[in-house]
Amino acid sequence: MKGQSRVLGTFLELARIDSETFHEAVIVDYVVEAASRAGFEPYMDNAGKVIGGEAGNVYIKIPADGVDAPPIIFCSHLDTVSPGKGVEPVVKRGLVLSAGETVLGADCKAGVAAIIELMYLAAEGKLKHGPLELILTIAEEKQLQGARNLEWERIDSRHALILDGAGYVGDLINASPTQDNLEFVFSGTAAHAGVEPEKGVNAILGASWAVSLMRLGRIDTETTANIGVIKGGRAVNIVPDRVVVEGEARSHNLAKLEEHRKSMVKAALEAEAAVGVGVEVKVERAYEGYRIDPKDPLVLLVIEAGKAMGMRMEIKPSGGGSDANLLNASGIKSVVLSMGARESHTTNEILKIEDLQKLVRLCSEITSAAGRLRGDR
Length: 377
What we know:
- By secondary structure, the protein is of the alpha+beta class.
- The chain has 2 domains: 6-176 and 289-373, Aminopeptidase (3-Layer(aba) Sandwich), CATH 3.40.630.10; 178-287, Alpha-Beta Plaits (2-Layer Sandwich).
- 31% of the residues lie in helices and 27% in strands.
- It contains 10 helices and 18 strands.
- Strands 1, 2, 3, 6, 7, 8, 14, 15 and 16 form a 9-stranded mixed β-sheet that branches. It has a 5-stranded antiparallel β-sheet with strand order 10-11-12-9-13. A 4-stranded antiparallel β-sheet has the order 4-5-18-17.
- Strand 10 (217-220) and strand 11 form a beta hairpin.
- Helix 4 crosses helix 10 and helix 6 runs antiparallel to helix 7.
- The two termini are 43 Å apart.
- 48% of the residues are buried.
């Protein structure tokens, strides 16, 4: 790794490890081994068994060294979206990108690499810090299932920094929407499509009718909605008798979320009446939204740390969810830091090496100034 920083080397190693959701065993082993070599005692919980995965969430506690501060969490997730098998990262002109037809996995292995580097710096006595809790979660990309099964009694911190934001290092996400998932099951009557189609009731027609009535995409500045999955039909010569439609609605405003969710259900019921299909509706709260005041001590800690580095800092809301949603809902005040990944979840994903190094420095500055959180609840 001559001429390359250690954190870059760590990221390249992580990127080459297959870790699509529910298949994080190898990357968990990597983190556990790295923590053990550094002199710490990592712990893995049973979340993987609960959700049908290969491994659990990893916790690493680091005692204070040189800073009188309350404990603080640095958290990132270990899983990637598909296509994430056989990733071959390529370093080119200050960037890291994927060589093939896969994602790079910078979401969120850039965050994981930065956390591992913090751990190394602490082990080497090169980091001023209060008590640190490093948490690496599994299955974040599938409805935050890893964080949903954290052992909360194991966690001491009341503040957390989640390294999982896309975009420039220096962006701080202080707000996230509440998300509801919706499932519509349309039931019709099967029949031979060529011999006696009049005896059939077409469930695909009912589903299409419903979706055509729904307002989707950007609803307003606070609200979005999407239909993402449609499953049904058996053959082109059979009138389909069952179709499942899956979607979501998100909003930073709970009243708007409720209003739009009801409009999507109403569209399904109108299709039921118009086409003659049956419809069953299931609504499930995926996660609660949050908003942390821009003047909150945790936000100010990050902003001041960035300014000490001469970094451009920006506070902004996000339309996405992260482990921060569940930590905030559990009483652990959390914000998300961007970690330099661009075009995440696509085969065009890239990571700027300079951003990765900036992220480590920013986190280091935060740990050295974390005493400002003392007394904050």
